[in-house]
Amino acid sequence: KKRIGVMTSGGDSQGMNGVVRSVVRMAIHMGCEAYAVYEGYDGLVQGGDLIKQMHWDDVRGFLSRGGTLIGTKRCMEFYERPGRVKAAKNMIERGMDALIICGGDGSLTGADKFRSEWPGLLEELVKTGELKQEQIEPYQHLNICGLVGSIDNDMSGTDATIGCYSSLERICEMVDAVFDTAASHKRGFVIEVMGRHCGWLALMASIATGADYVFIPEKPPGVGWEEEMCDIVTSHRSWGKRRTIIIISEGAQDTELKKITADQVVNVLTEKLNLDTRKTVLGHIQRGGLPSYFDRWLSTLQGVEAVNAILDATPETKTPVITIRENKIERSDLQECVALTKSVAEAIKQKDFAKAMKLRDVEFKE
Ligand code: F6P
């Protein structure tokens, strides 16, 4: 029986438990055995109790739970070759030669590297006497499949990462709550949202809540943004708005790539407009809590597709990542998606913001 491991890695996101449930049940349905690797790559490197066989009932109730019930960790040891050798040994000892990882682009790139070093890692273990040649013979190919789990929606090649819509939902709920108190006091609020280097959460939340102004890393405001923002706020107030909501992505910056902070924006509104303005940093409430219907659906269908991709794989198959494009669940080339994601970051570094937006598939207008 083929043994398939499932792991969550990097920052947790809503829907990761749905992935574990779906992979475990689909693997069993297809006549395979399923194993959960606890605590991300750390579990793969340490082995022992951190790799457990999962049965149908072990994932009962997973679908509606937030976070990741099998844990996650940023594991430095796996990023060094000796750590990956240990991980390979743990897999072979359990008869596993397939791994499905749900995480961000860094976690998925790590997995692809692991695959590229296989079976060299096994040969190393034979040389050091830790494994016997007969033990490694049946496991000459490692099959890896990635699923993108992140609230940031920062991976190119997929329309949505698992977790991003739950997070967006939560942000909107919180902004609405701030909205009520802001309107009561006629105050201004600068609300900082997560997203790392990606402005998707901030941009979508600003549209969904009717915010007055938004700061995102991919399209920094031009020189003199302070005046522009104040003019917009003044005109909105003149139309009768009792509150001002500014959404700022945690990665916000100006055209010279200098960070723009929420405090800075608060000061501008306070000093230039004499507006009673407060800052709200939403923090990790954006990441925890219930997955939305969309993330339950996405994680379930993508988990099924990941198991199918593992079962269809040949030694020639490039490592797939499961994506969703125009509402269709697809298999894409992991390396291509990672390269495209990196090219967005590169364009921003070069201050070519129009290109960055284009690469993110957002129309750019001066
Ligand atoms: O990548 C997900 C994310 O929540 C980002 O939006 C944020 O910048 C980061 O992780 C926070 O990481 P940590 O939980 O390690 O502080």
UniProtKB/TrEMBL annotation:
Top-level taxon of origin: Eukaryota
Family to which the UniProt record says this protein belongs: Belongs to the phosphofructokinase type A (PFKA) family. ATP-dependent PFK group I subfamily. Eukaryotic two domain clade "E" sub-subfamily.
Annotated source species: Knufia fluminis
Annotated Mg(2+) binding sites: 105
Active site: 152 (proton acceptor)
Gene name for this UniProt entry: PFK1
Full-sequence portion shown in this chain: 13 to 378 of 825
Function, in words: Catalyzes the phosphorylation of D-fructose 6-phosphate to fructose 1,6-bisphosphate by ATP, the first committing step of glycolysis.
Protein name per its UniProtKB record: ATP-dependent 6-phosphofructokinase
Binding-site list for substrate: 150-152, 187, 194-196, 250, 278, 284-287
Domain Phosphofructokinase, first and last residues per copy: 3-310
Binding site for ATP: 11, 74-75, 104-107
Subunit structure: Homotetramer.
Region entry N-terminal catalytic PFK domain 1, spans: 1-366
Subcellular locations according to the entry: Cytoplasm
